[in-house]
Structure formats: C-alpha cells, structure tokens
Amino acid sequence: MIFYFSGTGNTKWAAQQLSTLTNEPLVSIAEAVKAESYDYSLKTAERLGFCFPVHGWQPPRIVRQFVDRLNIGDTTSHYCYALCTCGDSIGMAMDMIEAELRNRGIRLASAVSLVMPESYVCLPFMYTDTPERERAKLQQAEADLDAFATKVIERKEGYRQLKEGAAPWLMSHVIGAYFNGRMITDRKFRVDPDRCVGCGLCEKMCPTGDVRLDGQSHPEWQHSGACTCCLACYHHCPHHAIDYGRYTPRRGQYYYGHGKKT
User: Fold this and answer.
1) Positive or negative, the Cα torsion across 62, 182, 229, 124?
2) Residue among 217, 34, 5 nearest 93 (CA)
3) For 170-222, what is each residue's pLDDT tens digit?
4) Average pLDDT, whole number, for the chain?
5) Do the bridges between strand 48-53 and strand 26-28 make them parallel or antiparallel, or are there none, so unpaired?
6) What pLDDT score does 261 carry?
7) Widest CA span of the chain, in angstroms?
C-alpha cells in the first residue's frame, strides 16, 4: 500500500509509477484525511510506502498528522520505504518523517528524494524552472525513480539517496520551522475577477478542499487551516487569475504533465 500526498502532481506521478511497478494500491492522504480514514489492513508481505512533497524543508503538516493517526496493526512484518519530491533540496525532511513513523512503530528501510520541477513561487527569489531545466529534472527523476523502484521490489535495506543540501538542520529546524509555522496560510490568495471565468478548476484541483466557489463562481479560500500552500489552485488556473501575495503576478505556472496534449 502506498500513501501519498500531492499538490501539483510531481509526487502523484512518482507514487503512481511505484504502484504500477509493485502492483500495490494507492491511497490519497488528502482524501483519507477528508474522510477521517486512518485504519488500514495490509496483506501478508505487502510493502508500505509513503510519498510526499517537501514544503519548506519539512514534510507537509497534513502528512505528519496523517502518520500520527495512522493505524495499520502489525508493522513489523512489512517492508517500509519513503519517497519525497523537492525543487532543490530536502534538508532533514526525511529524518523528520522517519521519526514520525518510528513513533507509530514503523521502521523505515529505504528512502529517496527526487529533484523535480519547481512549483513554489511565493517568495521574491522563487520562480518556476526554465523549460530546459524542467526537462532535465524530469529526465533525471525518471532515472532515479527507476533505480529506487528496483530497490523497493528487492526490499533493499538501508538504501538512502537523499539530497539534503547545505546546512540541513538549519534549513529544516530553523528556517523551515518558521516557514511552516508562519507562512503556510491561505489568507494571501486572491482572484482577479476580470480574468476568472468561473471554470471551477481551482476547486477541483485543491487536494484539501480549501477552495470553494462563491455565488459568482469565483474561488474563495476557507481559512480553515486545511491549506498546505501547495499552489495547485494557482498553477492549474488556465487564465492565471489567481495570485498569492505580492510576488506571483505574471510568474510561471507548473503542474506535472502541463505540456502534454490532452
């Protein structure tokens, strides 16, 4: 069984690939949380996977809360692995999720981080990648995922391929703590009513259900604490009608597969 959380699709792609290669089912953490579904049973010898994006050098709050409430019964006989995606580096995000799993009696056997196209654009120095950089990241991510999938299928112990970056403790426990404690909020989202056509795609793509359409079919954010600032609403808007704070107007948009014909 593979539990995953994804906003702009990078992690969902990775989880789907692992599901196909291992022939094991996917469970959306966002959907499970909305349904308050935390009890699961694993088949004999079934692997246990966790896939998540890194937000501010930490696992997203929704992932940590899910793990804290997760009940899967016996955990000692199941091979457990984790995969995280990031735009650059992960700091100590994997160590943090490993500690959360350990508290639930789950031993993490192997882990990998995949560097994938950047989607966070809410700070003055943050932009989406150039098309060339995006293609290079995706190509490398595919190779890294194939290598990791082989280890998972073989139930390899102690495999770690993690891009922690410089000063990982500082990034996760100081800068990341501030970022996740103070900057994860939906109160800076706004919609341009002249650009918005009321298509509802923002509501559909929000993984946590934080976006609802008002009487004019414009998005409203619920300020309920559910938002993870994954920016799915911003990146999927076909008319670039959604902005966040001061820095996103006219910046790039990205979600996995955005360049493919449908």
Assistant:
1) negative
2) 5
3) 999 999 999 999 999 999 999 999 999 999 999 999 999 999 999 999 999 99
4) 95
5) unpaired
6) 45
7) 56
Q: How far apart are CA 75 and CA 87, in angstroms?
A: 31
| 43-87 tens-digit pLDDT | 999 999 999 999 999 999 999 999 999 999 888 889 999 999 999
User: What phi-psi label fits residue 225: left (phi over 0), alpha (psi between -120 and 50 degrees) or beta?
Assistant: left
Buried b (16+ CB within 10 A) or exposed e, 79-91: bbbbbbbbbebbb
Through-space distance between the first and last CA atoms of the chain, rounded to whole angstroms: 29
- The pTM score is 0.95
**What does the alpha-carbon distance between residue 30 and residue 66 come to, in Å, rounded to a whole number?**
9
Query: Which residues, at least 6 apart from 138, have a Cβ–Cβ distance to it below 8 Å?
Result: 116, 117
- The CA distances from residue 176 to 92, 100, 197, in Å, are 10, 17, 36
- Tokens 């076909």 correspond to 238
Q: How far apart are the C-alpha atoms of 150 and 128, rounded to whole Å?
A: 30
Quick one: tokens of 246?
A: 């001061």
- Its sign, for the CA torsion 191, 204, 25, 147, is negative
Q: How far is CA 262 from the centre of its chain?
A: 23
Token reading at 189: 């989202």
Q: How far apart are CA 261 and CA 246, in angstroms?
A: 32
**10 CB-contact burial (10 Å; exposed 0-12 / middle 13-18 / buried 19+):** buried
Amino acid present at 145: L
